[in-house]
Amino acid sequence: MSEDLEARLAALVAEARAAGALGRLREHFEALLAEPDAPADPAGRPVPQRFGMVGASPAMGKIFDLLERVVASDVAVLIQGETGTGKELVAQALHRYGARAKKPFLAENCAAVPAELLESELFGHKKGSFTGAVADRPGHFVAADGGTVFLDEIGDMPLAMQAKLLRVLQEGEVRPVGSNKVVHVDVRIVAASNKDLRAMCRAGTFREDLYFRLAVVTLVLPPLRERKGDVRHLVRFFLERINAEMGRSATIDEQALALLERWRWPGNVRELENEIRRAVALSSGTIGPADLSPAIRGG
């Protein structure tokens, strides 16, 4: 689906929600939100998608239904789930299909940035506040004013930073590193973690007051092994996209599909995408069992 069409549909959905007409138009919009250029099965049906995510399993249906209820609000959402289940896709959906869609969406992985730099990344800094600060920098919260900030792996945020994040949630203000002035911001915060944050609260490694601020709505993504029937849809989706990237026209036979559906997918959707990418690169045209990883072939 083109970005222009996505934006138009998102705006129509927001208008329908505001008018209280979403219930009557739901079936119509679900059909429109299915990607028209998504790969079709032999019967000509497109890959089932909602909110930019692939899936038709009951497990994903519950996720889509919850998204529909919270996407238009500004409540903080905590997304939990195993690595590779698509937590950032959910965060993007909350932004893209909500009232903040035309404002910035900025993401930060709290586990990927050294603790001493994370404060600057999120809150900004003043010139000269530390070695290497050669100019003022606004930070994500100021740069995303009016939009959404997605904090991935929030469980890895240092306790000192957690206290400062709590202030953003409570007061809507940030103080850049090296500044004595606060900046007021209006951002929706979406956080994600593959850790048990409640257990971390009990252990004293995550602030309980911050947890309750972040988890106004908690959305737990199902692992791929619990999404009955979705492997087949995801394979079609990834094949189409990866074929276009590589200039290939690879297909997949039923035996290979059966092996993919049997696998437990410890790395979830990300692992499946990597497997299809590998198979497209190695196959001579039709992906068969021999083109799959040895672990998957062996079950």
Q: What would a concise description of this structure say?
A:
The chain has 299 residues and is α/β, with parallel strands linked by helices. The chain has helices at residues 3-18, 22-33, 58-70, 87-96, 115-123, 140-143, 159-171, 197-203, 208-214, 230-246, 254-262, 268-282, 294-298, and strands spanning 49-50, 53-54, 77-80, 105-109, 148-152, 173-174, 183-184, 188-193, 217-220, 251-252, 286-287. The protein has two domains: 61-220, Rossmann fold (3-Layer(aba) Sandwich), CATH 3.40.50.300; 224-298, Helicase, Ruva Protein, domain 3 (Orthogonal Bundle).
Describe the structure.
The protein has 13 helices and eleven strands. Mean pLDDT is 86; it is low at 27-38. It has helices spanning 3-18, 22-33, 58-70, 87-96, 115-123, 140-143, 159-171, 197-203, 208-214, 230-246, 254-262, 268-282, 294-298, and strands at 49-50, 53-54, 77-80, 105-109, 148-152, 173-174, 183-184, 188-193, 217-220, 251-252, 286-287. The strands form four sheets. Strands 4-5-8-3-9 form a five-stranded parallel beta sheet. Strands 1-2 form a two-stranded antiparallel ribbon. Strands 6-7 form a two-stranded antiparallel sheet. The chain has two domains: 61-220, P-loop containing nucleotide triphosphate hydrolases (Rossmann fold, 3-Layer(aba) Sandwich); 224-298, Orthogonal Bundle (Helicase, Ruva Protein, domain 3), CATH 1.10.8.60. Helices cover 46% and strands 12% of the residues. The protein is an alpha/beta fold and 299 residues long. The two termini are 36 Å apart.
